[in-house]
Amino acid sequence: MMDLPTAFGLINALFCCYITSASSIEYGKFKPAQNQAVEDIKYDFVIKKFRVPLDHFSFSMNATFEMRYLVNDTWQRGNDPPVFFYTGNEGDIELFAQNTGFMWEIAPTFGACLIFAEHRYYGKSMPFGNESYSDSSHLGYLTSQQALADYADLISFLKSATNMKHSPVIVFGGSYGGMLSAWMRMKYPHLVKGAIAASAPILQFTGITECGAFARVVTSDFRIAHPECPKTILKSWTAIANVTSTENGRKWFSENWKLCQPLKNSSDIKVLKDFLTDIYGNLAMVNYPYASNFLAPLPAYPISKVCSYLTNSNQNDMALLLDLNKAISVFTNGTGNSKCLSVSENSSPNLDSKGWSYQSCTEMVMPMCTNGVDDMFEKIPWDFKKFSNDCYQNFKSRPQPYLACEEYGCQDLSAASNIVFSNGLLDPWSTGGVLSNVSSSTVAILIPEGAHHLDLRASNPHDPSSVIQTRQIHCNFIKKWIHEHWVPIDDKNTVQHEIISV
Asked: Which of 162, 167, 125, 165 is nearest to 142 (CA)?
């Protein structure tokens, strides 16, 4: 693996090649004040419901349920306007609508109708209501294939309206939603003209991406903030083990960290360590250059704030752990209102980890490992057998590690077209992203200063120039795809039709 400065140098060189063809489209609609958080902007939408089959691929089941979708047609102009369609991911669709400001900003320029579709089993789109997560027989319809079919049905319904019959549809998505937007274009090209797939780790699967890559990028982000920071975090794992090895030590830790539930045994300590590991990954994902509330209320560049407490890796165990408590409070108690820390709860409550845990135990098997040498974590190898057993214990389902690549393709994407894959290199999920051009119409944009799908968020005075330029590139491709939709290919005189007899 090349060192970080060399990698960033190559990335900048590649990036400049893209920017030279950036569109001159202006996309500014919402301009937050200098100190205004992006989430403070008001996003207006109408909430609607659409009935879809529970199982799109069975002829023997007729059950249906209602999925939610959000609509804003404020800027829709005339007949057959463009439809900007967000392929919802693992959470309440309202959260993603309020954190995808780019779509709202460019809608007036393109005269587009905005649609945000909620993924089945998330938010309020529950196929079995309160029983949706009750057992494996109810959960078995939670798959990306079913969700894509939901979106296909919804798009067909929207285009059945007289004034939208010929509307070009552009799909957008970030993270898992970005995976879905790319796959939507691949699977349903007759419905979708193009896709903006931001931070979409469609290659983060068995045999494609090395399991330790994610942790190395997380560690790099913390090292950039302060060289002592990852060293301190690495040492903290031993410090936790040392201090909590006795009853008095567990009591001291529980009191000084103000844990809601005191540490009692090794199982509690493992939960604590898993919680911390999740927090570090989340911080790397949302290391935005301004204050945000996406996963938690956080300051600008939250990793720098966290690392400001972790500048001395040579302290004794207790002193180090007191500093670590201050550091993680940046993520766990940014408002200062929490009276205690619950490490048994989801580290990102805004997202639905229960649904994603099931998906990762079935088709979204993304191997993760750490070694404590190239990263700041304890050594934890990828053990598929243990992972499979844990999945079966939790969900009575066994993971299929090759299913996603068999369904959508990983090693060969040559048939894909009209997709822009954008990845911020501060984002650990970029390790599973498409980082080089597939073809002239399926391209990769690398954003050196970008965290997780920063380019899909609303514009902000503190956005780095590479993010601003990436949004212009997105606009350029969207404009091109819409133009291609309206110009019949025969008019271009590029294809000659000929009847061939054999």
From this structure: 125
Ranges assigned E (strand) in 7-151: 46-53, 64-72, 83-87, 113-117
The amino acid occupying position 39 is E
Tell me which residues are annotated as active site: 175, 427, 452
Closest CA to 133 of 360, 398, 354: 354
Q: SS3 for 284?
A: helix
The label of the residue with tokens 């939790």 reads: 394
Alpha-carbon distance values, 157 to 87, 162, 220 (Å): 15, 11, 46
Residues contacting residue 74 through CB under 8 Å, at least 6 positions apart: 44, 107
Tokens standing for residue 309: 């407490």
Q: Quick one: CA torsion of 350, 352, 353, 356, rounded to 10 degrees?
A: -140
The two structure tokens encoding residue 37 = 């958080």
Q: Maximum distance among all alpha carbons in the chain?
A: 87
Residues with Cβ < 8 Å from 325, sequence gap 6 or more?
Answer: 256, 257
Any bridge partners for residue 52, and if so which? 65
Contact 435, 201 (CB under 8 A): no
User: Which residues make Cβ contacts (< 8 Å) with residue 162, sequence separation at least 6?
Assistant: none
Please name the amino acid found at residue 455. Answer: D
DSSP label at residue 380: B
Annotate 212-269 with DSSP letters as a single string. Answer: THHHHHHHHHHHHH-THHHHHHHHHHHHHHHHTTSHHHHHHHHHHTTBSS---SHHHH
Q: Residues 293, 123, 147, CA angle at the centre, nearest 5°?
A: 115
Q: Which residue, 472, 439, 479, is CA-closest to 455?
A: 472
Between the two ends of the chain, the Cα-to-Cα distance in Å is 52
User: What one-letter code names the amino acid at 409?
Assistant: G
Report d(CA 341, CA 260) in Å as an integer: 5
pLDDT in tens, the chain (502 residues): 333 332 333 233 333 333 323 333 344 333 333 444 444 456 899 999 999 999 999 999 999 999 999 999 999 999 999 999 999 999 999 999 999 999 999 999 999 999 999 999 999 999 999 999 999 899 999 999 999 999 999 999 999 999 999 999 999 999 999 999 999 999 999 999 999 999 999 999 999 999 999 999 999 999 999 999 999 999 999 999 999 999 999 999 999 999 999 999 999 999 999 999 999 999 999 999 999 998 899 999 999 999 999 999 999 999 999 999 999 999 999 888 899 999 986 666 556 668 999 999 999 999 999 999 999 999 999 999 999 999 999 999 999 999 999 999 998 999 999 999 999 999 999 999 999 999 999 999 999 999 999 999 999 999 999 999 999 999 999 999 999 999 864 454 444 434 444 4
**One-letter identity of residue 282:** N
